[in-house]
Specification:
Layout (H helix, E strand, L loop, with lengths): L5 E5 L8 E4 L13 E6 L2 E11 L14 E2 L8 H13 L4 H7 L3 H4 L8 E6 L1 H8 L7 H15 L10 E2 H7 L4 H10 L2 E6 L21 H11 L6 E7 L5 H14 L3 E5 L6 H11 L4 E4 L5 H13 L4 E4 L11 E7 L17 H12 L2 E6 L4 H8 L4 E5 L10 E6 L5 E2 L2 E2 H12 L3 E5 L8 E4 L16 E3 L4 E3 L6 E3 L11 E4 L3 H11 L5 E4 L9 H11 L4 E4 L12 E6 L13 H13 L10 E6 L5 H25 L6 E9 L2 H20 L5 H4 L1 E14 L2 E10 L2 H16 L8 E6 L6
Parallel strand pairs: 9-14, 9-15, 10-12, 10-13, 11-12, 13-14, 16-28, 19-26, 19-27, 25-26, 27-28
Antiparallel strand pairs: 1-2, 1-4, 3-4, 3-5, 6-7, 6-8, 17-18, 20-24, 21-22, 22-23, 29-31, 29-32, 30-31
Helix pairs in contact: 1-12, 8-9, 17-18, 19-21
């Protein structure tokens, strides 16, 4: 056992443990929990986070390696954040080092400084004398640089101004000045400093707020209920129908937090919603904001993180990973569209729910959290029913706009042209003639989902997935939407040489059909094929809001939070997609999608109409939505879930794997099940072991994806604590199974999609 001070470090490795290192000659007191340090790890030099310090280690002195470098002057993760991330690592049963790494921008994981610095170019005393003498006479660029720096010194207004000029300032003043600067450094006339910019004033007390619309009675009650909880924890479900003014409630609650000198964290599910919400917040509040989402460059993400970490940003707004943002003096957390599956990390190692972590963070910080949605998740509604969350209802649309009128189009008795029924075409013509805008929703991008040979029956397959290739006619490509495979669109069947044709409809084909039916009517399409660069989404929003475009064709992207006041008709194509899924959550997602997209209609002064095309007009889900709205659907769905003992009336975890062969994928999970049965069947096994149920293993619904075969094994229990104790005991056995090296496997706690 060692007798020297040590630090226990979390490293970004898949190992579920901390690592002891000798604190070094500087002593233990200079390194604190939450700081980044660089340490030797095998042949590598890794950056880790200090979790704790200790007077000694269980390892002998000779086995302890020293810390190589301390990177931070103060902790990059404070005690509360370390505790939250430690809880997350335990709950999701994921290695702590990888959890901590997920909470930091990539630049920080690679060693960037936590404090911003800027380069300042400063004259030396010898440089000032040289400038006074008019030197250098034969190097005009060097002379110009000396003059610019001397002028900046002469115009400095106070002794507190930073010295010299920043590189950004010189870029504006002079062309190609850096070579001249290096020459002047060589002469001893110039030096470069790395300095911290002047600290931004912390915004406390009075906050400049632009006036907003007058809140109605339901909004005022919701605002006051949340604000009465400021300074303490409370979980509030803002259940407002589409267009009821949920964003205005967010703005008023954030305003109250800012006036109390606190900050706000606002989470949205999609990047596409970020610009719109950022604009609303910036119009209302004259305070610095930090915006975090995956479309930022690594440097932009670092800058935003620094603004939050320094306390300069009083509002932090972002997508899923922003739940870890270091918002200072946190006063309130808002989760917009809380039902959205984008809040769950589906890929990579650490699979967490940002919505659930937001609630845990709020509870630990002692602040209220607002979960807003027109279609709350069934888990959220069950938390309301049990009293854990408080429901705040907004049942009326802002400005007293009437809810849209929903009706079904029976495709069994209606003529259909290229996926659009005759009644839908007539309705589109009627609304366009009345000056309205039309939204056509189809959650399938591309031109057509299938390329078929009418002679031999060949269907274009993906070689690496159990899926068909999608036709993208505008680019003349066949693409797999699961693995990204891409090939040229053939003119003839590769098997028999006969002509091929596109079968089915995607948004690209619907756009083409509408252009033919309504020539001269400008339309736009909104899906991932057309929204590729920054500004694409904003441009589409501008064209719709200005009335420049009259018809919008879109996928799931159009259902979330967008406000088009002049849209009077919504047509839902192929509403039946979710009826026959193997995932028990499919009906819930279908109901949410229909309600959300229907809510785009009639948000302005004119009434809205929603037409839903279906081949199953008597389906209970559709009938309950039409008769009782989302509330009626949710009540029926919760009853079904309770009878079947599915979440939220039980807890799930999924072990998923992939391998080069189907046999290898199932072999690992079969061994995993045997190990689990061993825990449950041991003589005298604990009650928590007997309280779990094993389902599977079974191939995934799409067994082959990206050239690998996928399978899953579910573990279910009505007792959450029992499930987690079982996983804790089971994981070491999984990691030591003989077949573990032949597969890639993950553990997903609280999965929201069963693949």
């Amino acid at each position: 056992m060692s007798s020297v001070p040590v630090v226990r470090v979390a490293l970004p490795t898949p190992l579920r443990r901390l690592f002891d290192y000798r604190a070094g000659p500087a002593g233990d007191s200079t390194i604190e929990p939450g700081m980044r340090i660089r340490v030797p790890f095998g042949r590598q030099r890794l950056i880790g986070i200090v979790m704790e310090t200790a007077a000694a280690s269980e390892l002998p002195d000779e086995r302890l390696k020293p810390v190589l470098e301390r990177l931070d002057p103060r902790p990059v993760l404070d005690g509360a954040t370390l505790a939250l991330l430690g809880w997350a690592a335990d709950y999701y049963h994921h290695p702590i080092g990888e959890v901590l790494a997920a909470a930091l921008p990539k630049a920080l994981r690679l060693g960037a400084a936590i404090d911003a610095t800027e380069e300042r170019w400063v004259l030396t005393p010898e440089g000032r004398e040289a400038h006074t003498r008019g030197e250098p006479r034969r190097a005009p660029r060097q002379r110009q640089l000396l003059t610019a720096l001397a002028s900046s010194e002469a115009s400095a207004t106070s002794g507190t101004d930073p010295p010299g000029l920043a590189g950004a300032d010189l870029n504006e003043k002079l062309d190609a000045w850096r070579d001249a600067a290096q020459a002047l450094i060589g002469r001893g006339w110039l030096t470069k400093l790395e300095v911290k910019p002047a600290a931004a004033a912390q915004i406390r007390g009075p906050v400049a707020v632009a006036p907003g619309p007058e809140a109605n009675e339901e909004q005022r009650l919701a605002i006051e209920k949340v604000c009465d909880s400021l300074g303490g924890f409370g979980a509030f479900v803002l259940h407002g129908i589409t267009g009821s003014g949920k964003t205005e409630v967010y703005l008023r609650v954030v305003e109250r937090a800012l006036r109390h000198g606190r900050s706000a964290l606002v989470l949205v599910p999609e990047i596409g919603l970020t610009p719109q919400l950022v604009s609303r917040f910036r119009e209302r509040f004259a305070v610095p904001m930090a915006v975090l989402h995956s479309a930022l460059t690594d440097h932009e993400r670092l800058l935003a993180w620094r603004d939050a970490f320094s306390g300069r940003a009083r509002i932090v707004l972002g997508t899923r990973s922003a739940v870890f943002a270091p918002a200072q003096d946190l006063g309130v957390i808002v989760v917009d569209e809380e039902h959205d599956t984008s809040f769950k990390q589906h890929e990579g190692g650490f699979r967490y729910s940002a919505r659930d972590l937001a609630v845990v963070r709020a509870h630990r910080a002692g602040v209220p959290v607002v979960l807003g949605s027109a279609t709350p998740a069934l888990e959220t509604l069950q938390n309301v029913a049990t009293g854990r969350y408080t429901r705040l209802a907004l049942t009326r649309r802002a400005a007293e706009a009437a809810p849209p009128r929903l009706s079904l189009i029976d495709l069994r008795s209606s003529a259909v042209h290229a996926g659009i029924s005759t009644p839908a075409v007539q309705a589109i013509e009627r609304h366009l003639g009345a000056g309205g805008q039309v939204l056509v929703f189809l959650n399938r991008r591309g031109y057509a989902p299938t390329l078929l040979c009418t002679a031999c029956g060949w269907i274009a397959p993906c070689r690496d997935c159990d899926a068909r290739l999608t036709v993208h006619l505008s680019s003349s490509r066949l693409r797999c939407h699961h693995c990204g495979a891409d090939s040229a669109l053939p003119e003839r069947c590769p098997q028999c040489g006969f002509a091929v044709k596109s079968v089915g409809q995607g948004t690209e084909r619907i756009e083409e059909t509408l252009a033919g039916l309504f020539p001269g009517i400008p339309s736009i399409r909104l899906d991932r094929d057309v929204v590729r660069r920054r500004g694409d989404m904003e441009e589409a929003m501008r064209r719709m809001s200005s009335g420049e475009a009259r018809i919008l064709v879109g996928t799931q992207m159009v259902t979330k939070g967008h406000d088009f006041p002049n849209v009077t008709l919504v047509v839902v194509l192929n509403a039946d997609q979710g009826f026959f899924s193997t995932d028990f959550r499919a009906p819930e997602r279908l109901a949410q999608t229909i309600v959300q997209v229907a809510g785009r209609a009639g948000r302005g002064e004119r009434a809205g109409e929603v037409l839903i095309q279906t081949e199953f007009p008597d389906h209970p889900l559709l009938l309950s939505l039409l008769a009782e709205g989302y509330d009626g659907f949710a009540r029926a769905a919760l009853t079904e879930r309770s009878q079947a003992a599915w979440p939220p009336f039980s807890r799930l975890a999924a072990v998923r794997d992939s391998a080069k062969t189907a046999e290898a994928a199932l072999a690992f999970l079969t061994e995993a099940r045997s190990a689990a049965e061993g825990l449950r069947g041991e003589r005298g096994s604990a009650a928590w072991a007997r309280a779990v149920r094993l389902l599977g293993p079974a191939p995934a619904a799409m067994a082959k994806r990206a050239g690998r075969h996928h399978a899953q094994l579910l573990v279910e229990s009505a007792d959450r604590a029992a499930l987690h104790r079982f996983i804790d005991a089971w994981l070491p056995a999984l990691e030591s199974l003989p077949s573990v090296r032949r597969v890639r496997w993950t553990l997903d706690v609280d999965p929201i999609e069963l693949f």
